[in-house]
Amino acid sequence: MGEATKLIYKYLRHDKKFPHVWCPGCGIGILLGALIRAIDRTGFEKDEIVLVSGIGCSGRLPVYVDFNTLHTTHGRALTFATGVKLAKPSLKVIVIMGDGDAVAIGGNHFIHAARRNIDVTSIILNNSIYGMTGGQYSPTTPYGMRSSTTAYSNIEQAFKISELAVTAGAVFVGRGTVYQAKLLDGLIEKAILKPGFSVVEVIAHCHTQYGRQNRLGNAVEMMEWQRDHAVAVEKAAGMAPEALQDKIVIGVLVDKELPVYQEEYEMIRERAKATATR
Amino acid sequence: MVEGALVAGCRFFAGYPITPASEISEILSIKLPRLDGTFIQMEDEIASLGAVIGASLAGVKSMTATSGPGFSLMQENLGFAIMAEVPCVIVNVMRGGPSTGLPTFPSQSDVMQARWGTHGDHPAIALSASTVRECYEMTVKAFNLSEKFRTPVVLLMDEVVAHMREKMVLPDEDDVEVFNRVKPTVPPEWYMPYEDTPRGVPAMANFGEGYRYHVTGLTHDVRGFPTSRPDEIGPFIARLHRKISQHFSEIQMAEFFQTEDAEITIVAYGCVARSARRAMIEARERGIKVGLLKLVTIWPFARSAVEKVLQKSRILLVPEMNMGQISREVKRVNPGVAKVFTLNKVDGTIITPEEILNRITEVA
Ligand SMILES: Cc1ncc(C[n+]2csc(CCOP(=O)(O)OP(=O)(O)O)c2C)c(N)n1
Ligand code: SF4
User: Fold this and answer.
1) Residue B300 is part of a domain; what is its CATH number?
2) B131 and B30, same domain (yes or no)
3) Measured torsion, CA atoms of residues A31, A36, A40, A41, in degrees rounded to the nearest 10
4) Contact A112 B53 (CB under 8 A)
5) Residue ending a domain, choose from B142, B175, B208
6) Do the domain assignments include residue B237?
7) Do B23 and B144 belong to one domain?
8) Taking an 8 Å Cβ-Cβ cutoff, which residues of chain A contact chain B?
9) Which numbered atom of ligand 2 lies nearest the CA of A56?
10) What's the confidence (pLDDT) of residue B165?
11) Closest ligand to residue A133's CA
12) How near does any CA of chain B get to the CA of A100, in Å?
């Protein structure tokens, strides 16, 4: 059996849930592959993994994999994940969100989970659009682009998800594209192994909605655009800001140490017990 | 209430500060870590209930506490917990509304929100309390019912009862009946997390215990996977309702005071039931045969208890600190054999025994 086939048999609910709901050529499938390869490399048991998602095309991902899977409400995945992790810290909690999910309706939860440094890995599939509901603009739709609700062009400035995560205090932030799948495997693996709140922003294409409305071509052409605009973070360090305007900086953006919430809470428990017996 | 929660096995609390429910958070933030439990203050009430549901799925009994505005924010996740059948307890110390309303005054105006606040057709369990002892007992009961029926349970408190100081002797912990969710005993490959059972309540596996399954707020099949097949959707929604309706007698709690010979029966709950009891005694001293039906379970509605008093009394009086939420239910159940009168107060003050007595003499 080839390596991929082995992984499919081991991790996918291959006999239960397929075919999937995504459009042929969608970037989410590539993320699914990267996620499985990364988890396999970390060596966690399937029983130890809890995969949580919100609502959206990306939110449908957990149903296809054989972990403890939890498909929550739109934007709230991180709140459920917080409860799971604090209640049973031995579980490895990974959260999949879309850009609307993570930084529009769930933006507040996102910055607070980062600030608390909850030991959860967030993977955000950024396709610059609300895919599931028919291509309305999201907080990451670039200025000047079209969507179902910005027919005359988008006049709002876009959020930079990774930079937001850095500012909010995430201890690990990485960005990749679905074109550079190998890099993605590595980023996700590192994020999962990192104690504390880790974020991987995955730049992906939604050719069905964003691509079509902005005449960006088919899935392959949109992936070629990712290839042509991605700049490794090491290289970007030596580039002028103007030259980076339309580029996607990929790689590990932040990797730092901060006290993890659960460990701090253990200290609170010890203190509480000490005052109780005094 | 806090003691009740801890005895029932609650070890996780997530909340957002709001008057008049903050005391519950404050005490639990001190007590839970001593018991290796977890207290966390979330960024809002939506997050609070999300975390509570997550913790319950991981196998820890969990609760949150709030008041009107926060209860409004919780409605979507409340529906999720009903749909995904996740046990948890939500305390709502009611305040006058709409909106920010009357933060520090008592009210009973969220009775209907507890029933229909979240969207879609769904069953609901909500309990109330009128004494400090009942706060304790009903909190235990709320956890037990939620575990037994795999559903969220709402505790509707009013500010008077929530802030009341009364002496009570806590029962010995060993004497308190505590129910824990039924876990699957079948091998993981046979486990059906949403299958129908004689009780209508499937066994619940906790995350990380070898039963890897899918939890979703989408309508799902017996395995937990999303479905849009009519032959799976219909039976699923029917079971959600049936698991509650089939067990009305286990869920419904009501107390009858001197209803046997009563010509007029007061139907009351929460702090108003206390005033009603006083009014009943005084009315009897004046020679008017008054009884009291005290509702402890608010939802599902105590239809059979009301029907019982309808057979005896020609007049029912429903005093409430809202514009008439339970009285609508009483009227709905009444086939026309009795007259149903209301006494509604929404000015932030409690309904006094005198006011009830006056209303009794008016309608008698
Ligand atoms: C409270 C609420 N509001 C709106 C929706 C409708 N809705 C479903 S998915 C979605 C947006 C999804 O976009 P995104 O998070 O970017 O994910 P994608 O589909 O692009 O992967 C919306 C608005 C919802 N499910 N819940
Ligand atoms: S609509 Fe877009 S994001 Fe959703 S499955 Fe299709 S291509 Fe993917």
Assistant:
1) 3.40.50.920
2) yes
3) -10
4) no
5) B175
6) no
7) yes
8) 16-17, 46-48, 50, 52, 62-63, 66-73, 76, 78-88, 90-91, 108-109, 112, 265, 268-269, 271-273, 276
9) 4
10) 85
11) 1
12) 17
Q: Are B149 and B267 found together in one domain? A: no
Q: Which helix (H) or strand (E) holds B25?
A: helix B22-34
Angle between helices A181-193 and A28-42 (to 10 degrees): 50
Q: How is domain A3-276 classified at the CATH fold level?
A: Rossmann fold (3.40.50)
Q: Inspect the interface and report whether the beta carbons of B58 and A88 lie closer than 8 Å.
A: yes
Intra-chain end-to-end CA distance of chain B, in Å: 38
Asked if residue B195 belongs to a domain, the reply is no
Q: Tell me the per-residue pLDDT of B81-116, one tens digit each, with 9 for 90 and over.
A: 999 999 999 999 999 989 999 998 999 999 999 999
User: What count of Cα atoms within 13 Å lies in the side-chain half-sphere of residue B326?
Assistant: 34
Q: Could you identify the residue written with the tokens 């937001």? A: A164
| Residue B283 Cα, gap to closest chain A Cα (Å) | 50
Instruction: Please tell me the distance from the alpha carbon of residue B191 to that of residue B188, in angstroms, as a whole number.
Output: 5
Chain A contact set for B30 (CB, 8 A)? 272
CATH of the domain at B79: 3.40.50.970
Per-residue pLDDT of chain A (278 residues; tens, 9 = 90+): 788 999 999 999 988 888 899 999 999 999 999 999 999 999 999 999 999 999 999 999 999 999 999 999 999 999 999 999 999 999 999 999 999 999 999 999 999 999 999 999 999 999 999 999 999 999 999 999 999 999 999 999 999 999 999 999 999 999 999 999 999 999 999 999 999 999 999 999 999 999 999 999 999 999 999 999 999 999 999 999 999 999 999 999 999 999 999 999 999 999 999 998 76
Is residue B221 in some structural domain?
no
The preferred substitution site among A208, A216, A218 for testing ligand 2, maximizing ligand atoms within 8 Å of CB, is A208
For the cut 90, the answer to whether the pLDDT of residue B162 exceeds it is no
Structure tokens at B311: 């057979």
Q: Which two tokens stand for residue B217?
A: 């707020």
Kindly report whether the global pTM for this prediction surpasses the value 0.95.
yes
Q: pLDDT digit string (tens) for B62-75?
A: 999 999 999 999 99
Whether ligand 1 lies within 6 angstroms of the CB of A107 is answered as no
Based on the fold, state whether residues B14 and B157 are members of the same structural domain.
Answer: yes
Q: Determine whether the interchain pair A86/B51 forms a contact, defined as Cβ–Cβ distance below 8 Å.
A: yes
Domain assignment present for residue B245? The answer is no
Name the token pair of B6.
């801890």
User: Last residue of a domain, which of B123, B140, B175?
Assistant: B175
Q: Report how far ligand 2's centroid is from the alpha carbon of A25 (Å).
A: 9
Q: What is the amino acid identity at position B342? A: T
The answer to whether residues B159 and B261 belong to one domain is no
At A278 the pLDDT is: 60
- In angstroms, the separation between the Cα of residue A269 and the nearest Cα of chain B is 4
DSSP B87-103: -EEEEEEEEE-STT-EE
Three state DSSP letters for B30-62:
HHHHHCCCEEEECCCHHHHHHHHHHHHHCCCCE
Judge whether B105 and B346 are in contact, CB under 8 Å: no
Chain A residues lying within 8 Å of B43, measured CB to CB? 108-109, 112
Q: Are residues B18 and B162 in the same domain?
A: yes
Interval B26-39: pLDDT, tens: 999 999 999 999 99
Domain count, chain B: 2
What domain range includes position B315?
A: 255-363
Residue of A14, A16, A80, A110 to mutate, interface with B, max B Cβ within 10 Å: A80
B170 plus B260 within the same structural domain: no
